[in-house]
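Page 42, continued from yesterday. The earlier attempt failed because a stray header line got pasted into the input along with the sequence. Redoing it now with the clean sequence only.
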Amino acid sequence: MIDDNDLIDEFDDLDEPEEGVLFEHFNLVVDPGQTFMRIDKFLSNRLNNASRSRLQAAADNGNILVNKVSVKSSYKVKPGDEISIVMDFPRRELKIIPENIPLNIIYEDDSLIVLNKPAGLVVHPGHGNYSGTLVNALAYHFKELPLFNSNDPRPGLIHRIDKNTSGLLVIAKTLEAKVHLSQQFFEKTTKRKYVALVWGDLKDDEGTITGNIGRSPKNRQVFTVFTDGESGKHAVTHYKVIERLGYVNLVECRLETGRTHQIRVHMKYIGHPLFNDDNYGGDQILRGTTFTKYKQFVANCFALLPSQALHAKTLGFVHPVTGEEMLFDSELPENFAILIDKWRNYLANRINEE
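This time it went through. Structure tokens are written below.
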């Protein structure tokens, strides 16, 4: 299956496909829990910047296949259907353009670097983000290294964090380091801890969240926890309350697995979405009072940190060459730290008023 981040939008000028070879641009198998839905509506939910009218034109031109047979836009998808979008030309090659984007590198040697990614920076190019990414910056800063060439869309990348999550990443500078570090992530021997501000007062001081994570059948842009034991991928998050701040808690999350949006999905699953997480409901006032003063306070907090309150604070691994145990820790971004102080002050003033 082609990853969403690599999809290229090719629906603008569709012509009748020529006879002969067709090139697959997109493929997926419909989830077991999917309800019957028109394929143009289904794909418009699944693909970024692909309107139903453009998808209907693609179907009319024979570019949308279900189980290897072209279908009309009125076709209703069902669980198990294999959907393909084909064109009479190959997928566009993605070239990495080196860009002089500053990097906050906190450690570097001949094998790897560890850097602190700011919130708002996309890690690698993909649909809608073909420039201005971390990979574009890496291609510029390490253009003399063989691993960082314009034909590799993910040079040196071992893992990634969401666009609006800040924090630590390790990047390989050699193929040997990339293989060694990738194996550590695969075997789950790395040490990763995140700090998050979540809505609500957690019942327990610490706990473990276990639940398979996969794309939501209702909205393919987000992920959800599946309780049937079969759908999604196994995911485990351990959490510990660092500080209780009334209507929000500051928590430390330790990843046992590394699924997309894992902390965000798991915290929502237990009823404590991340503060200002617009994908998972945290950008609404979920706890507190109905007073206008409180609503304005929360609005000011949202404006201060206009993304989910999540920071990859700690990263540990074994050095791929020396075998040394490496452990790195990063400070919270300034606006994140100020946000926490604002909640501390709010809680103190509330207690004094009671």
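Notes: The chain has three domains: 4-87, 105-186, 191-353.
Reminder to self: strip header lines before submitting.
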